[in-house]
Design goal:
The protein is of the alpha+beta class. The chain is 34% helix and 28% strand. Strands 7-6-8-16-17 form a five-stranded antiparallel β-sheet. It is globular. It binds manganese (II) ion (MN) (2 copies). The site of one manganese (II) ion (MN) has 5 residues, from loops. One manganese (II) ion (MN) binds next to loops.
Length: 296
Amino acid sequence: MEEEELEKLRKAGKIAAEALKYAKSLIKPGASLLDVTKKVEEKIVQMGGGFAFPAQFSCNDIAAHYCAEADDDIIFDKQLVSVDIGVEVDGFIGDNAMTVDLSGENSELVQASRDALENALKLIKPGAKLGEIGKAIQDAITSRGFAPVRNLSGHGLGEYKIHTKPTIPNYDNGDETELKEGDVIAIEPFASAGAGVVYESSPASVFELIEKKPVRNMFTRKILKEIEGYKDLPFCRRWLVDKFGEAKVNFALRELKNIGVIREYPPLVDQSHGLVSQAEKSLIVTEDGCEVLTDY
Ligand code: MN
Ligand code: MN
């Protein structure tokens, strides 16, 4: 990677980590999820970042992909809150997450995903096998009596692409693919007090443009134009509703989904509704280890 690109990647990572720390400071009983989301998004823009995806605050048995709607009414109280922040700088992405335990009763579960992440990071170097990284994650989580979420995984980070190869498993899947110097990846262990398998719930508030196609309806066309400005990265309904109003946006999103222009990212919920914690950092593989890009 060119030095100039590396600097953009580092900048995205730094902003993502700062935004995550800021989010943590705002998550308190009595604060509204919507308000915290907006403040964090404002902070990202102030720091010179773009959104690699909308800021997400997934509570309790929701592992990921809960993003506030324009009229979201969740007030933080005693939830287990997994915050996931993605920032882009000229397409270079920093992706990181942590879980805040407002009840104070789930520190073991939170620690399990943190330990798993730290253990995985120790293994990262050229030649490290993906299955071995998964095993380190799995062992850290099961040793505390929890289950790794097997159908969620870490991933490569590309230019304007949030999920590329390689896939970093959260359990030992036997994958012997080796990491290479220069690989940019996000590692994201999830620890579950329940099934350790998530399903796609509804309704979705996060979407992504997958294929541009002509649309006839005037409103839908207008909204598609706005969506094209999100540079093929995930976006949320709220951004559109704040600009165009709920009725038009819901009509357009439905139409765009039906004709295959956008896809949904629904909330991912633990199958047996166990609490889920997450920890995530982005890194680049170096000659003899790795450089963590989102050092929170
Ligand atoms: Mn993430
Ligand atoms: Mn990620």
